[in-house]
Amino acid sequence: MKNFMFYNPTQIVFGKDTIKKLDKLVPQDSRVLITYGGGSIKRNGVYDQVIQALGNRKVFEFGAIEPNPHYETCLKCVDFIKENNIDFVLAVGGGSVIDATKFIVAATFYEGKDKWEILLTGGNKITKAMPFGTVLTLPATASEMNNGAVITKKETLEKLAFHSEHCFPKFSILDPQVTYTLPERQIANGIADTFVHVMEQYLTYPVRNQISDRFAESIIITLIEEAPKVFSDPMDYEVRANLMWAATMGLNGWIACGAVQDWATHMIGHELTAFHDIDHGTTLSIVLPGVMKVMKDEKGEKIIQFGERVFGIKERSKEERIEKTIKATEEFFESIRIPTRLSHVGLNETCIEPIVQRMKERNWSLGENGTINYEKVRLILSDRL
After folding, report:
1. Cα within 13 Å of Cα(281), Cβ side
2. Which pLDDT tens digit goes with each residue over 119-165?
3. Domain check: are 189 and 335 in the same one?
4. What does pTM read for this prediction?
5. To 10 degrees, what angle do helices 374-383 and 264-276 make?
6. How far apart are CA 263 and CA 265, in angstroms?
């Protein structure tokens, strides 16, 4: 097991009808900015619950945050905050809204002229941020309980991530009831995102980290068990609750303790989103099986462990077990009706080279061993045609 430090100050308020608790969580004298996305919160009743819970506080709004939040949109919100003397931000939405809000609260206090430096330096230059909380409406990214975010710069077609201890939410409200009206596509993307978050922290090489391994496997098993139920009975509260908590646990730092991490699937997936505006979860379900295939020699022991403990694959040769496990992973994604091939989203081999060239220009070496270079990225994407 690797050395680790674990810190997570976010207060979680989980369960039915918990939005009303905002009244005690948001400081009474705050000038509150609500950030949100396309406006679904105003159609499904979440917005009304939030406004009622905030009571007599002075409330402002900033909406239209994109599914892959744009740097340019975030800067407009920073200006809005300064113009209106906002002192608390409440993100009401899914991971994109929360990610955008993390950048916004950090950029508001950032002293550098070019706020894109926040992304270029991975958040290392952030020294403070405005306090914020979240009301989660789409379980997927665990942004509601971590300190990371991913932002897209449309001008240059770049998508980069940052982390900062100053960007943990003060609190996050998780009411599974608000997910009842989610479209199937968003549900599938959220499940895929959670699945791959776990795999990025699990599918590397053994370090005898039994606790983190077992926690990770339990999250994946929960996804496999609950996913069919959420599509057959969308109003089942317990299914929604288990999927919501699985998503939060998937990337709140807990299963990363003492583990080795990968994140190559995400880095390659980010490029697919940056160039082609593909749903984040979809890029992950496309790329992960390719990473497993191309990197099976380095990941073989953990793939075999994964296949045995999660899919019950215990017989035949190691090579056959690895192949069956990769196939089972791909079949799970297909069972939730999410794309697993580039052709499924209208792309062909011409999409590969721009991504490969960007990786080459950045001199990135991805994966837990730093061995996924641009040539292997080409192999991974070629496998997914």
Report:
1. 27
2. 999 999 999 999 999 999 999 999 999 999 999 999 999 999 999 99
3. yes
4. 0.95
5. 70
6. 5
Alpha helices, DSSP H, located in the chain: 22-25, 40-43, 46-54, 71-84, 95-107, 117-120, 184-202, 210-232, 237-250, 264-276, 280-294, 296-311, 318-335, 352-362, 374-383
Paired tokens of 339:
């794309």
Concatenated DSSP letters for 88-153?
Answer: EEEEEESHHHHHHHHHHHHHTT--SS-TTHHHHTTTTT------EEEEESS-SS-GGGSSEEEEEE
Cβ–Cβ < 8 Å for 74, 103 = yes
Length of the chain: 385
Strand partners, 136: 93, 174
Give yes or no: residues 191 and 168 share one domain: no
Pairwise CA distance, residues 189 & 333, whole Å: 10
Amino acid at 317: S
Question: Is the domain of 128 the same as that of 275?
Answer: no
CB 132 within 8 A of CB 105: yes
Q: Quick check: 139 and 192 in contact, CB under 8 A?
A: no
> How many CB atoms within 10 Å of residue 7?
8
Neighbours of 297 (CB within 10 A): 8
List the beta bridge partners of residue 149. 162
2 found inside a domain: no
Q: Which of 178, 204, 225 delimits the end of a domain?
A: 178
Largest CA distance in the chain: 67
State which amino acid sits at residue 320.
E
Query: Cα–chain-centroid distance for residue 304?
Result: 26
> Same domain for 200 and 70?
no
Domain with 69 in it: 11-178
Q: For residue range 67-115, list pLDDT tens digits in order.
A: 999 999 999 999 999 999 999 999 999 999 999 999 999 999 999 889 9
SS3 19: helix
60/92 Cα distance (integer angstroms): 13
Encoded amino acid at 4, one letter: F
**Separation CA 357–CA 360 (nearest Å):** 5
